[in-house]
Amino acid sequence: MRRGTTLVCILVIFGLLIGNPGVHAAPPLDTVRILFQPVALNGALFVAEKEGYFERQRIKVNWVPLNSQDQAVPILALGRLEVGFGLTPAFYNAVARGEPLRFVADRGHVARRGSIGALFVRAELAGAIRSVADLKGRKIALPGSFGNLGHYMLIKALAGVGLTFTQVTVTFMPPAAVLPALQSGAVDAAFLPNPLDTLARERSIGVQLIDLADIIPGEHIGFLVYGRNLLVENRPLGVRVMVAYLQGVRRYGEGPTPRNVAAIAEYTKTDPEIIRRSGWIGIHPDGYIDVNKARRYQDWLYEVELISVRNPMSSVIDTSFAEQARGILGLGAR
C-alpha cells in the first residue's frame, strides 16, 4: 500500500470515530439518591463513596439531607429517593399499606460496650442521678423520632428498674441537636450515639449512665432500606449499589485506619481524633440481617401501639440483593 493511500485510510477511520463519539465513550453513571445524615453510623457508606466503590459500579451518589428517617419513608415509596435507613414505625406502617420498601442489609448492630453509644446525664447532675431509676421525672433527649431505636432502648432501660415511659419527659430532636441540649441544661439526660458520647466525656459535658450494649446486646440499630426504584424499577442497579456498599462495609470493618477516619471526619465535620477515639460500629460484612431481631422490634412497636399490623417478615426484608452481591464479590453463602 502506498504512503498516500495509508494516510487516507487513517483519516477515514479517524473521521468515523469523530462521527460516532460513543464508540469508545465510557457508559454513563447512574445517579443514586441516598439519605444523608452526618453521623458515624453511616461510616460504611461514606467510606464506600470516598474509596470509589460506587464509581466503580458506575454510580454517582447524590446525598439527600433530611432531619429524620421518617421523612425518607414517603419519598422512598414515591421513587424520589433510592436508599434510606430505618427502624421506625413509619417504615413498618408504610409496608403494611403495601408500599415498596424493604430492609436489604445490616447498617449496624450492638456489638461490644462502647461501640454504639450510651445514655448520659449532665455532668452537674452526676451526683443526683446515679442510676436509671433516678431518671424519674427528668427531661431526656433522644435523637431521631418517636418509636426509633433510642425510644426502644429507653423503654427497655426504664422497665428494668420498674419505670414507664410516662414517668419521664422525652424530647425527640435531630442528632446534631442532642449534645447542645445536654450541654445547655435544656435536658437532664440524653442518648448519645458515637462520636457524641466521646465528645460529652472528653469535654466534661456528661457522665455515662448506661451503655446500649447493657440493654439490647446484638440488636440491629439500623438497616439499609431500598425504595420503589431499586425494588421494582431497576433491581440490577440495586445489586450494584449493594456491591459498592458491602465493599465499603468490609473496608470500614478494618477499624479506625487513617483512611477510614479521614473519610468519616470529612462527611460528619468531626475532628479526626474524636473519630479515632470513638467506638467503632459493628456491621455484618456480608450484610446479614437477623430476621428474629427485626421481628422482635416490630413486635415491640405493635405492643406499644405504634403500629397496628404485624407484617410478615417476607414483606419487610429482602436479602436477595446482598446474596447476589456476595456472589459477585466472592464472599460465599452464609
Fold and architecture overview:
This protein is 43% helix and 18% strand. It has helices spanning 3-19, 43-50, 53-56, 69-78, 89-96, 149-159, 175-184, 196-202, 212-215, 228-233, 235-252, 258-268, 272-277, 291-303, 320-329; strands spanning 30-36, 59-65, 83-85, 102-109, 117-122, 139-143, 169-173, 189-193, 206-211, 220-226. The strands form 3 sheets. Strands 7-6-8-5-9 form a 5-stranded mixed sheet, with helices on both faces. The longest helix is centred in the C-terminal third of the chain and has 18 residues, at 235-252. The chain is globular and about 65 Å long.
Topology:
Layout: H1 3-19, E1 30-36, H2 43-50, H3 53-56, E2 59-65, H4 69-78, E3 83-85, H5 89-96, E4 102-109, E5 117-122, E6 139-143, H6 149-159, E7 169-173, H7 175-184, E8 189-193, H8 196-202, E9 206-211, H9 212-215, E10 220-226, H10 228-233, H11 235-252, H12 258-268, H13 272-277, H14 291-303, H15 320-329
Parallel strand pairs: 1-2, 6-7, 6-8
Antiparallel strand pairs: 3-10, 4-10, 5-8, 5-9
